[in-house]
Design a protein that fits this description.
Layout (H helix, E strand, L loop, with lengths): L1 H15 L16 E5 L8 E7 L4 E5 L2 H4 L4 E4 L3 E7 L8 H10 L2 H7 L1 H13 L3 H24 L1
Antiparallel strand pairs: 1-2, 1-5, 2-3, 3-4
Length: 154
C-alpha cells in the first residue's frame, strides 16, 4: 500500500514538473544541431552536425553554397553549439540538407540572434580606423554624461 502511495505522489510530481528536473542545459550535440565554427579556416561560419563520429569529432556540412563550409570532420573543441536545430536524417545528402536549412530559416534565425549581432559588432569594430575609435570614444563619453545628468534630476 505504501508503494501505491509513492507511485501516486511520483505521478503527481511528474504532472507538475514535466521533463528533466534541475537540468538547465538544452544545447546538446545532436544530428541537426546548427553550430558555429570557432577556430580554423572555417572560423565564423555556420554548419550543421550530420553525424557524430566519436566523442571528439563530428561530421558537419554547411551546405557549402549557402554557408561556405564543405562536408568535413571537425573536433567539438572548434564548434560552438547554437540553440538552432533542423530536422535532418543522419548523413543527409546535400540536397536534403539544403532544403531543411532553407525551410528552417536558419540564416534568418541566426542573424536575428543577439549572438550574431554581437559578432557582427565585434567584426565592425575590429575594422575601425584610429579616427573611428576616437569618434566612438567621444560618443560613449557624451552618452555617459547625458545619463549622469538624468540620474541627478531624479
Amino acid at each position: 500500500e505504501t508503494n501505491g502511495a509513492w507511485s501516486a505522489s511520483r505521478d503527481k510530481f511528474r504532472e507538475e514538473f514535466p521533463g528533466p528536473v534541475g537540468m538547465g542545459y538544452d544545447r546538446f550535440v545532436e544530428i541537426g544541431r546548427v553550430v558555429l565554427v570557432y577556430f580554423g579556416p572555417e572560423a565564423g561560419k555556420l554548419c550543421v552536425i550530420i553525424d557524430v563520429l566519436d566523442q571528439n569529432r563530428a561530421l558537419v556540412d554547411g551546405p557549402e553554397h549557402i554557408s561556405g563550409v564543405h562536408r568535413q570532420q571537425i573536433p567539438f573543441k572548434r564548434l560552438a553549439l547554437t540553440p538552432i536545430t533542423i530536422a535532418v536524417p543522419r548523413e543527409a545528402r546535400v540536397k536534403t540538407l539544403t532544403q531543411a536549412f532553407e525551410q528552417g530559416k536558419v540564416l534568418e534565425k541566426w542573424n536575428a540572434s543577439s549572438w550574431a549581432k554581437k559578432l557582427a559588432q565585434k567584426e565592425k569594430r575590429s575594422n575601425f580606423s584610429d579616427f573611428d575609435r576616437f569618434k566612438s570614444m567621444l560618443a560613449k563619453k557624451k552618452k555617459s554624461v547625458f545619463g549622469e545628468h538624468i540620474a541627478r534630476e531624479a
